[in-house]
Amino acid sequence: MLGEWVIVTPKRADRPFQEQAKECPFCPGQSETEGEWDVLTLDNKYAALQAEQQPIDIDHELVIGAPAHGFCKVIIQSRDHNEQFENMKDSQLNKVMGEYLRVTEELQEQRGVEYIMLFENRGKAIGVSLNHPHSQVYALPFVPPRVERELTQFKKHRQKYGNCLLCETIENEMKSKERIIREEDDFISLVPYGARLPYEVHIYPRNHISNLLELKGSLQQLGSMIRDVTRRYSNVFQETAYVMVFHDSPSNGKRKDWHFHVEFYPPWRDSSRRKYIAGIEQGGWTYTNDSSPEEKAKELRMAL
Ligand SMILES: [Zn+2]
Ligand SMILES: [Zn+2]
Ligand SMILES: [Zn+2]
Predict the structure, then answer these.
(1) How far is ligand 3, taken at its centre, from the CA of residue 239, in Å?
(2) 136 and 149 belong to one structural domain
(3) By CB distance 3.0 to 4.6 Å, which of 166, 205, 245, 268 could disulfide with 119?
(4) 291 and 186, same structural domain?
(5) Which residue, 140, 173, 199, sits at the end of a domain?
(6) Which positions are annotated as active-site residues?
(7) What distance in angstroms lies between residue 259's CA and the mean position of ligand 2's atoms?
(8) Which of 93, 123, 140 is the last residue of a domain?
């Protein structure tokens, strides 16, 4: 009824939670993590998508089921079980960003990949099964609906006004600065004007850059912007929990209109109370935000 795909993976129900697992499988010296490494990318053992499945043309209107073709990677971001983003050293941060770029480039070469989504799930409140610092990459055989919707908005705006939606947003936000959290030479972080969640934060490159590959020269600064957001979160929340997603340009063709950005979705409405995604949000995809983005931006600005 929605014209969107669901990835059905009954086998993933077996994946471990750390309370059950005796030792952390991502700490050095385990069967998958032997040898020398600083950042390590593995195939997800409990992958939702399988490379050995044959990709088929799923855009055809008669296709309602398809093999779950794609790639699921896990990027272990440090040897140290406790080196989360908020306390990560510069040198390690650079290695993590470099690996994000390398994995993205590698997966873009694979056939049947339409979109690469890189994300980090963090904290018990998000349902994270392993605490060791790690992020994940899904290389999908389709462009996911949320990205498709943003792409449509980018295109509409360009057709109507002749410029980029995000470039214009940045220009407007820089006038009042009331929702800005941090400004650097190449990036800004802010609580968006239309934040769906109280502590939603976006990081935007200040120049029109469509994807991670074009960001090569300022990857280091992107890393420190990410660390900065997570530090603020860990000072404000009793439990550091968030979802971080890279909104990179779709892999094929449609790059020019896209403006790369990173989005954070924390599950909190204040320092310890949950924001629930309930009736109006789930039933209507309409969000109620009972805080003001300007106040939350101020709170996050003051958090460091
Ligand atoms: Zn560990
Ligand atoms: Zn732009
Ligand atoms: Zn986005």
Answers:
(1) 25
(2) no
(3) 245
(4) yes
(5) 140
(6) 134
(7) 5
(8) 140
Assigned token pair, 231: 């530090």
Whether 3 maps to a domain, the answer reads no
Domain span at 246: 145-302
Residues 101 and 150 in one domain: no
Q: Which residues contact 55 (CB under 8 A, 6 or more apart)?
A: 67, 69, 111, 112, 141
CA of 248 to the centre of ligand 2 (A): 12
189 and 129 in one domain? no
Q: How far is CA 81 from the centre of its chain?
A: 21
| Shortest-distance ligand to the CA of residue 40 | 1
Ligand index nearest the alpha carbon of residue 169: 2
Domain co-membership, 71 together with 88: yes
- CB of 119 within 8 A of CB of 135? yes
Q: Which of 117, 140, 76 is nearest to 212 (CA)?
A: 117
The verdict on 97 and 239 lying in the same domain is no
Domain holding 81: CATH number? 3.30.428.10
The pLDDT tens digits along the chain (304 residues) read 898 999 998 776 666 655 555 689 999 999 899 999 999 999 988 888 988 888 888 777 777 888 889 999 999 999 999 999 999 999 999 999 999 999 999 999 898 999 999 999 999 999 997 899 999 999 999 999 999 999 999 999 999 999 999 999 999 999 999 999 999 999 999 999 999 999 999 999 999 999 999 998 899 999 999 999 999 999 999 999 999 999 999 876 667 899 999 999 999 999 999 999 999 999 999 999 999 999 999 999 999 9
Identify which ligand lies nearest to the alpha carbon of 134. Answer: 1
pTM of the predicted protein model: 0.95
CA of 179 from ligand 2 middle (Å) equals 19
Using the mean position of ligand 2's atoms as its centre, give its distance from the Cα of residue 61 in Å.
33
Sheet holding 261-265, edge to edge: 40-43, 71-76, 134-140, 115-122, 242-247, 261-265, 201-205, 187-190, 180-183
Domain count, the chain: 2
